[in-house]
Design a protein that fits this description.
The protein has about 600 residues and is mainly alpha-helical. About 65% of the residues lie in helices and about 5% in strands. The strands form 4 sheets. It has a 3-stranded antiparallel β-sheet. Strands 1-2 form a two-stranded antiparallel sheet. A two-stranded antiparallel ribbon has the order 3-4.
């Protein structure tokens, strides 16, 4: 067989890579769908194969399925390079689908080249995987020990009934896919999220430098010398969706050394001469950082001062939107940060550059802003205003939830007249200040925010209850009762509101109304031992002893370690029970609460 025929046969065989890769990426989504379906049908399934679960392994030592997937993927990268990125990543599948669809309608997005934001993936990688360990060392905490856990421990390693534990809601997930899989491709070019946002890609790119598996020149004698009989047509470079100068690297090095190479094999499939293949060579290490002659360096699209603006805007967007409304995940905000930075700088160019263009849209021609340019400018202004509004909301969210965290540390009232583990006046004052601060700031986010989540509504209800309890603790029982009655209208399904109404009514001697309030509380929450105990106490006062005994026993059944119903039941059984039972419950009360009942004797 002649060399030419051999090249043609190799090229034809290589062109099958595209359909095979598309099949693999489609298969990824099929497997994801089957995984979710198995969970829905069976109730328990394999823990999500999410790479971000690596953080739980590194921080807590919990061995997870996601961590094992990451180890396997990294091991493959260290041998054959970044095949996982182009053949197994669901986000890259969306990016390539977006580029393919755009090309079908005649749009080929121009790759945007930025000096500064190319470092974003590496910064995100350090923040996710390295910085927590640095914090651990600074705080003097020991390194975690790898161990396997179950759902009962709070975070299952492998089998779980909480499949969605580390995933955003469906709406947020679809929006994330839309931003990092489609929008960023249209604006910044194919695979732009891989280049400017993906922290896992940054880690894999480091591994690729150590990998012997490379795209190589076929027909070379070893690693030195030049490509044999290559016309340097540049088709391989034109077809590379990662923006690598493939033909130049093959000519100079005999292999592709750029770690951005995702091994999708498009260059092999499209080489008309069959001169490109996959093989094993010496690792590239830092070769791609050298300024070798014959390798054309990319021209960047922004001036140095514009790069500074890009960095500032990126960090503003990242800090404002990450976790906003309890919704925005980290990877989404990375994508939004890159898009927002590009949009602001491009918008500024409308003010001083004579020509500004995006794909088919000519925003400015000869110093005159076009209609599409005017619309783009309005969108940028809208984005800036939205970000300013979101920054205010984010501030109040941060301060409010920080106050909630402080409140959790200093303790909270279990009910009116009883303070959890706050046993000094300073702690009570600190607690009341935390309640006020948390309530004030979170109410602001509820009133002026664009979204109110269930967690915020639930926490506001708790804080309203704590604030009303603080009024009672301060001696304003009448004001507290009036406030709880208002909360009963606002939160009709919250048992604790009815419970506190019962407590305050009992304090005023309105026993029948208090019993009714407790009954309403128990109708909403049968497991609240305090309500059973208190209503039993009131029933005993009304000489309804059989009902009172039932309530005390119900309280003990719900919470065997609650001292008060043991004591109350013992007092009741003095007249109707056995001496052994009275002795048992008095002993349990003394054992559980020595400060109150330690001196009791049957």
């Amino acid at each position: 067989m002649s060399d030419q025929a051999d090249h043609v046969e190799r090229a034809e065989r290589a062109r099958a890579y595209g359909p095979w890769r598309a099949g693999c990426l489609i298969g990824v989504y099929v497997l994801m769908g089957l995984h979710i379906a198995h969970w829905k049908i069976n109730g328990t399934t394999l823990a999500p194969l999410e790479l971000n679960e690596v953080m739980h392994t590194l921080e807590l030592g919990i061995l997870t399925a996601g961590f094992i997937l990451m180890v396997v993927a990294m091991a493959s990268v260290l041998v054959v390079g970044r095949f996982f990125c182009s053949w197994g990543c669901h986000i890259l599948a969306l990016q390539d689908l977006s580029a393919w669809l755009l090309e079908k309608v005649g749009i080929r997005p121009k790759p945007v080249r930025m000096r500064s934001l190319v470092l974003v993936p590496f910064g995100a990688m350090l923040y996710m995987f390295v910085w927590p360990q640095v914090e651990r060392l600074i705080a003097g905490r020991p390194m975690p020990v790898l161990h396997i856990t179950t759902d009962e421990s709070g975070w299952a390693s492998f089998l779980t009934d909480d499949f969605w534990r580390n995933l955003p809601g469906v709406g947020v997930m679809l929006f994330t896919f839309f931003v990092v899989g489609f929008v960023i491709v249209y604006l910044l070019g194919s695979r732009s999220f891989c280049k400017y946002g993906c922290p896992y890609g940054a880690l894999f790119s480091l591994g690729d430098r150590l990998a012997p598996g490379k795209i190589v020149a076929v027909g070379r004698d070893g690693d030195d010398g030049e490509m044999v009989d290559c016309s340097s047509c540049g088709i391989c470079t034109a077809k590379c969706q990662s923006g690598i100068r493939v033909h130049e690297e093959l000519t100079v090095y005999g292999k592709v050394v750029n770690p951005a190479c995702l091994k999708d094999l498009d260059c092999i499939s499209n080489c008309p001469e069959g001169k490109i293949g996959f093989g094993f060579r010496m690792p590239g290490l830092l070769t791609s950082l050298k300024r070798d002659e014959g390798i054309k360096r990319p021209r960047y699209d922004f001036l140095l001062w514009e790069e500074g603006v890009l960095v500032v805007v990126f960090f503003v967007v990242l800090f404002v939107y990450r976790g906003l409304y309890g919704l925005m995940p980290f990877l989404l905000t990375l994508g939004l940060g890159v898009i927002g930075a590009w949009a602001v700088v491009t918008g500024l160019r409308l003010l001083w550059m004579p020509y500004v263009r995006l794909n088919r849209f000519q925003f400015k021609i000869g110093g005159k802003v076009s209609r599409s340019g005017f619309v783009f400018g309005l969108l940028v202004v809208f984005g800036v205003v939205l970000t300013a509004h979101s920054s205010v909301i984010r501030y109040h969210e941060f301060v409010g939830w920080r106050a909630v965290g402080l409140l959790d540390r200093v303790g909270s009232f279990d009910h009116v007249g009883h303070v959890g583990h706050v046993d000094h006046a300073e702690g009570i004052v600190e607690r009341q200040e935390s309640v006020g601060a948390a309530l004030s700031h979170l109410l602001f986010t509820q009133r002026w925010g664009l979204y109110v989540g269930d967690e915020l509504v639930e926490k506001l209800g708790e804080l309203e209850i704590l604030a009303a309890q603080s009024m009672a603790q301060g001696g304003d029982a009448a004001g507290a009762l009036a406030r709880f009655e208002e909360l009963a209208v606002l939160y009709p399904n919250v048992a604790l509101v009815r419970y506190n109404i019962g407590v305050l009514l009992a304090m005023e001697g309105r026993y029948d109304e208090a019993i009714t309030a407790y009954d309403q509380s128990l109708a909403l929450d049968q497991m609240h031992a305090d309500s059973w105990n208190n209503v039993g106490y009131l029933l005993a006062m009304k000489e309804r002893y059989e009902q009172a005994e039932y309530c005390f026993r119900a309280a003990i059944e719900r919470n065997p370690d609650f001292a008060h119903p043991h004591y109350n039941l013992a007092r009741l059984l003095v007249f109707s029970g056995t001496a052994e039972e009275v002795e048992y419950h008095l002993g349990r009360a003394a054992e559980l609460d020595p400060a109150a009942y330690g001196e009791l004797s049957p």
